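Illustration: Serine/threonine-protein phosphatase 2A activator.
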Amino acid sequence: MDPHDTSPPPKQEPPSSSTTPPPLSQPPITSPHHHCTTTTCINCGGPTTFPPPTPPEPPTYIPIRMPALNLPPNSATNTQQAIILTPVPQSQRVPTISLSHIFQTPTKRIHSKNDIVRLHSSDTLKNFLGFIVALSESIRTHKLSDPCNLSSTVDSIISILQTLIQFIDEIPPIPQSSRYGNLSYRTWHDRMTGNAESFMLQFLPPDLHSATIELVPYFTDSFGNSSRIDYGTGHETNFTAWLYCLARMGIIKEGDYQAVISRVFVKYLELMRKLQLVYCLEPAGSHGVWGLDDYHFLPFIFGSSQLIDHKYMKPKSIHNEDILENFSDEFMYLSCIEFVKKVKKGLFAEHSPLLDDISGVPNWNKVNSGLLKMYKVEVLEKVPIMQHFLFGSLIKWYSLSFSHI
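Result:
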């Protein structure tokens, strides 16, 4: 074209009125004015080159262990609001009992939502939750291998848990067609229950031997249910209640709290993971894909506390396989993530969307406080879980004040 040519451009032919679809090799042409889901435009009624919508493919996540309960996404809205509005629980000192204390067999007291409301207005629940917060704070910024006070009681409890692990090796699973709930677990559970009282007497002083009537039920409820062959956050809460009872008796002191997490709870977690894998325990009332984990909650609280103010590891670091491989032995949260990835197949965001969402939280302090609130709402305020919880003289039903205990 001559740059000095000032003649008008040639007249363009008007576009043809016929609508000819593009060849199959070309992608369909999209238009902002056509929002179609069929081969006919819903706005103008004319034909469109949009292909019919393809149905969504099923998720690739196929769980190894089928969750007992899946909460649909829309039902989580009210729960999420309840968690947001819940104040962050604060640590409390555990009041110890007097020498004249009379122990009693603990019983179930929760049957309805009204009972939950009464419990959460009491000092009993506030102090129990405050004990969990104090345990969480005791491990803050500490690695699991850091030196800590190892009392004779802590050593005895670790030895008891190790004995229970040995029981598993001595009671192998039996061959059976059922995928879940190996019947050998009942044999293991019977042996654990039969030895429970003698376990307590290993560390109780003579003047507290009568406490076994109250301690044994919490202890034997800490490792799953032998009838259903399942395990869940309610059993985990019972183990923490057993530790709380020991604190109420002065058997466990505040100076032991770090060891209670880094030694005792770590050993308990080792035991429970082995029970879950060897005997294929069903998740008890699990939220499945909409929960943190099929079985556990508390190690995520304690583990997030460990990582508060860590210079390098952030919540998003759980997606770094090198970090998981090299540091899961030292940090409980990373250990939990590694275990979840080991037993569940598929994309992490699909089989553990809540944990994936938490990885986007900016810091571990927010993760820890959020999980504490979530534990209160999702575990301690749920009738299906707390209806199995026991109350006696150490964890008193509906106590308005500890002053008279």
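Reading the tokens back as a structure: The CA atoms of residues 35 and 72 lie 29 Å apart.
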